[in-house]
Amino acid sequence: MISNVETDAAFVGEVLQKYRALNHRPTNGAYTILAALALTFPSPGVSFKIIALATGCKCLPKDRLPQQGDALHDSHAEVLARRCALRWFLEEIGRYVSRDAQSQWLTRDHEGMFSLKEGVRMIMYTSTPPCGDASMRFLASHQDEEMAKLKDSAIFESLPEGVASRGRDNYALFAVLRTKPGRADSPPTLSMSCSDKIARWNVLGIQGALGSAFLHPIYISKIIIGEVAGNLQRDVRADCERAFWGRLSNVSALPQTFRVHRPAIIFTPIPFEFSKFSISPSGTSRSFNESLCWIADSSLPQEILINGLKRGVPPKHRFKKMFRPQLSKVSMLQLYHDTRLLLHGDLDQQVHSHTYFEAKQSVSHYQAAKICLQGKGCPFAAWVTSGIQWEQFTSTLCIKGPLIRQQTEQTQQLPRTEYN
């Protein structure tokens, strides 16, 4: 029987091998973050399938958010990998139907909902501790001595109720929600940290609102993290456990099938050659502006994104269906419609005209669980959202309702600024 340590090492090794095979590297000494999700099942040997892989460490400023759902707000590797995995699951449902109800990984119950087969688990790899609450002490350990003393001794005011911290402000505060980016000199965003998003997945599942129309909650059973030296692992494990589920002890009254999940936290000594501290031990290297997205078994498995858009697409073609990023909100809405039509054949004109926001709100059990986590008085009540005004588009890129922010030119390309 192969040990868990050997299995974890084999998984990380295969993730790195897959990444190298995709032949997309940071340039000019820049670093990036790598994340992947895989499915495993019990067997005498190593049995896992990488279904999603992504790199990236950028997100769009709040004044650059797209109204038509055609660009990714958040291009951090963990977030992109999760979106890749969601797309894989919806496409696997399509393969299930085409294969006469056959899937190695999914099963369907009497109510028509899908879930992982008995014994199948999801595992995650990330090349560095996720940004936000899980990485506060990890980042502090890489500060120079003078800055480390300042951070350790600083006393910060408590955050007002219902407010998230901006990046790494209030550095000494633990268990608080944080927005990206960490750098104080970067434009503010409406994207929550990866620590916060992983914690939310540990309650609501990685399938999100649209996926919950077809899938029971899918939870990550194990998170394997790179770049953490042995002398830091005790502190970083405690930080990850607090960030990912420890601060969720007050979540209650969740709908059936939802729960607070506690993934195992594992560290790997296998280095990722393009991580921040592999490129520069002092951590002074710059972050790469592009993101790689890969989805297993897909007809179009690989895409490169920059500023949330597909690299190389001329501005005048940005809104055409064939040039949309596969992971964009509008593309995922189209896949949701396609999946619903395939399973139920009930995609009437009214449903097809639903906005992204309306489609998400229609999945009532997911929304009820979300309220238990983010409602008033709940642990994540301070969660920052972009708002309904950014979700008023349909799958045909028609925007319904009044526009909150008028674009001066719909085909304007986002500037290639290095947003962290």
TrEMBL record:
Report the GO molecular function annotations.
double-stranded RNA adenosine deaminase activity; double-stranded RNA binding; tRNA-specific adenosine deaminase activity
Q: Which SMART domains match?
A: ADEAMc
An example of a Gene Ontology BP annotation on this entry? adenosine to inosine editing
Cellular component GO terms held in the UniProt record: cytoplasm; nucleolus
The record's section on InterPro entries has:
A_deamin (IPR002466)
Domain A to I editase, which positions?
Answer: 52-393
Q: Which Pfam families match?
A: A_deamin (PF02137)
**Name assigned to this protein:** A to I editase domain-containing protein
Q: Which species is listed as the source?
A: Paxillus rubicundulus Ve08.2h10
